[in-house]
């Protein structure tokens, strides 16, 4: 981790030279949620391949652009498309953008993803506000000699998701009249979906399962960023009544739910100072 | 794993050049638990960086030297400071010292570590004799082509911690009025501490304490047929429903406070071994 500071500052400088505003919020858009980026008053769009040390986005439904601009009047830097372990990147590569956004000055990181519902009380199309996670991924972005400038050797994880923002997100969902649940997200490598036996195991330890977000949140905890993470439950994982999962169906449901996520994001941005 | 044999010999010959004796016991001391080394009648001390193929320690509160000498009438070789998976080392590197100790002739391995307690009957400062473990690290030190000179392809793990010595240690604890438990260690990679949801999961699968070390060394000790006893110091409680932010300085302070009690148990076990072979 000792070469990270120079990578972070080179990537951040590249953005700063083209966009002088200090962002207050960083947003990572997951599967099918790219439409949210269309609502940003974009002042700059950068392809990931142009930014030093950034990886390339290869996943289905992920564009691969950093969008800088204003959303609900708040300066934001948005990742339209994210990186995953299953693309072959290390957790450290995946999370470099979080460190870059932190360097650019964000105070809050908002993450979205698509997940499979494990909790039988959920339905597809519901929003889960991530309250906590279980890391079952085979990598950790903090492995290596720690750089104390970036964060502590052993970051505390007793509250990686800001409890006040969880409450705020749930209250916005009630006001907007759609189902949102607080819950535990289990992060797996993928890329295969889970077996029925794995779903039975995961149901015992979490409410939804997905292949992202956990590395970014660990790095956010390492750097001391506040986090709000929203998961779209795109399909239900019933181990005893399994249905075949199709990547394209998941993207369609995620896109349909996108306005709900957007209402939470704008509601949170509207109250960023309160 | 075919490169290991030569690495072990190179490291061992560097040590024997400075210390001619055959060790009875190898000792690996964990976070805040290095004080036992002060009781060793030191005959030689070799910095890790001077030993070929030895990894260097980068962790908080770990020194990095191998101390050779006498303790309780036995020849011991003690690692003062260990290296961890989260420092970026492969488990094969981390566990090389165990193989070197075996090669030098050690007949017992003593390991200690600092852990978070998940069993609600434990208290910070208590000691747990490791009765068994669950490996949730993302690596295994035995991956690769097996070198049959070092151990079997599929090592048995039905009893990786020596039950007779666990009973000896618990008897010493009762005699000396030290609170000691017997329980299951789950090892995770770290370096971040666990979330509440993760603690619930780890408790559910049968673990009493959670730590970031020891399991790789014990797997290798089982591979090379080196009897092992493991001590965990509970440095903080990880109860998911009342979880407070962890304070690394407090954890190290609790380890330091409990260290004399650990020393009592370790020397008690060593005295038993010295008398009974």
Helix and strand topology:
The complex is a heterodimer of chains A (274) and B (277).
Chain A (H helix, E strand, L loop, with lengths): L3 H13 L8 E5 L11 E7 L17 E7 L2 E7 L10 H4 L1 H9 L3 E10 L9 E9 L27 H14 L3 E8 L8 H8 L4 E3 L3 H10 L2 E11 L10 H24 L4
Parallel strand pairs in A: 1-4, 1-5, 5-9, 6-7, 7-8
Antiparallel strand pairs in A: 2-3, 3-4, 5-8, 6-9
Helix pairs in contact in A: 1-3, 4-7
Chain B lengths: L3 H15 L6 E5 L11 E7 L17 E7 L2 E7 L10 H4 L1 H9 L3 E10 L9 E9 L27 H13 L4 E8 L8 H9 L4 E3 L3 H9 L4 E10 L10 H29 L1
Parallel strand pairs in B: 1-4, 1-5, 5-9, 6-7, 7-8
Antiparallel strand pairs in B: 2-3, 3-4, 5-8, 6-9
Overview of the molecule:
The complex is a heterodimer of chains A (274) and B (277). In chain A, 30% of the residues lie in helices and 24% in strands. Chain A is built from 7 helices and 9 strands, in the order αββββααββαβαβαβα. Chain A is globular and about 55 Å long. In chain A, helix 1 crosses helix 3 and helix 4 crosses helix 7 (247-270). The model of chain A has no long low-confidence stretch (mean pLDDT 92). Chain A has a single domain (4-270), classed as Rossmann fold. Chain B is an alpha/beta fold and 277 residues long. Chain B has one domain (4-276): Rossmann fold, CATH 3.40.50. Helices cover 32% and strands 24% of the residues of chain B. Chain B is built from 7 helices and 9 strands. Chain B has helices at residues 4-18, 91-94, 96-104, 163-175, 196-204, 215-223, 248-276, and strands at 25-29, 41-47, 65-71, 74-80, 108-117, 127-135, 180-187, 209-211, 228-237. Chain B has a 5-stranded mixed beta barrel with strand order 5-8-7-6-9. In chain B, strand 3 and strand 4 (74-80) form a beta hairpin. Chain B is globular and about 55 Å long. The interface between A and B is medium-sized, with 28 and 26 residues.
């Amino acid at each position: 981790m000792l070469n990270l500071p120079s990578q972070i500052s080179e990537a951040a400088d590249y953005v700063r030279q083209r966009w002088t505003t200090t962002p207050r919020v960083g947003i990572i858009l997951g599967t099918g949620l790219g439409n949210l980026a269309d609502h940003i008053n974009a002042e700059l769009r950068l392809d990931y391949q142009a930014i030093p040390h950034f990886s390339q986005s290869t996943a289905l439904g992920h564009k691969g652009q950093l969008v800088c601009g204003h959303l609900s009047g708040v300066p934001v830097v948005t990742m339209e498309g994210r990186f995953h372990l299953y693309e072959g990147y290390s957790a450290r590569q995946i999370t470099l953008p979080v460190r870059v956004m932190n360097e650019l000055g964000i105070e809050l990181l908002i993450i979205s993803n698509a997940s499979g519902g494990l909790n039988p009380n959920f339905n597809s199309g519901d929003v889960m506000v991530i309250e906590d996670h279980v890391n079952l991924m085979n990598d950790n972005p903090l492995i290596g000699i720690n750089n104390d400038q970036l964060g502590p050797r052993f970051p505390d994880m007793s509250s990686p998701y800001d409890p006040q923002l969880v409450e705020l997100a749930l209250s916005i969902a009630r006001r907007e009249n759609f189902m949102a649940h607080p819950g535990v997200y289990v992060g797996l490598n993928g890329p295969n979906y889970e077996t029925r036996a794995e779903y039975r195991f995961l149901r015992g330890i979490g409410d939804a399962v997905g292949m992202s977000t956990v590395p970014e949140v660990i790095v956010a905890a390492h750097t001391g960023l506040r986090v709000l993470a929203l998961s779209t439950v795109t399909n239900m994982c019933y181990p005893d009544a399994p249905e075949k999962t199709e990547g394209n169906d998941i993207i369609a449901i995620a896109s349909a739910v996108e306005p709900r996520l957007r209402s939470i994001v704008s509601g949170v941005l509207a109250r960023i100072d309160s | 794993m075919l490169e290991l044999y030569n690495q072990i010999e190179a490291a061992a010959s560097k040590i024997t050049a400075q210390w001619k004796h055959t060790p009875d016991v190898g000792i690996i001391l964990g976070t805040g638990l290095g004080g036992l080394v002060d009781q060793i009648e030191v005959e030689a001390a070799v910095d890790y960086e001077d030993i070929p193929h030895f990894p260097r320690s980068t962790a908080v509160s770990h020194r990095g030297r191998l101390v050779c000498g006498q303790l309780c009438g036995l020849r011991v070789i003690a690692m003062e400071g260990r290296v961890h998976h989260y420092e970026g080392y492969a488990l094969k590197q981390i566990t090389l010292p165990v193989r070197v100790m075996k090669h030098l002739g050690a007949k017992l391995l003593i390991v200690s570590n600092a852990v978070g307690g998940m069993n609600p009957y434990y208290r910070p400062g208590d000691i747990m004799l490791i009765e068994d473990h669950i490996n949730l690290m993302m690596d295994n030190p035995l991956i690769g082509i097996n070198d049959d000179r070092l151990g079997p392809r599929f090592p048995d793990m039905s009893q990786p911690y020596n039950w007779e010595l666990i009973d000896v240690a618990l008897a010493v604890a009762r005699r000396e009025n030290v609170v000691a438990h017997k329980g299951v260690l789950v090892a995770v990679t770290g370096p971040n501490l666990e979330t509440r949801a993760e603690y619930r999961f780890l408790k559910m699968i049968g673990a009493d304490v959670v730590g970031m070390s020891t399991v790789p060394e014990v797997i290798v000790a089982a591979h090379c047929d080196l009897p092992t006893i493991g001590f965990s110091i509970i440095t903080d409680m990880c109860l998911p429903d009342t979880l407070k932010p962890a304070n690394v300085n407090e954890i190290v302070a609790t380890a330091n406070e409990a260290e004399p009690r650990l020393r009592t148990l370790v020397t008690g076990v060593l005295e038993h071994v010295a008398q009974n072979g």
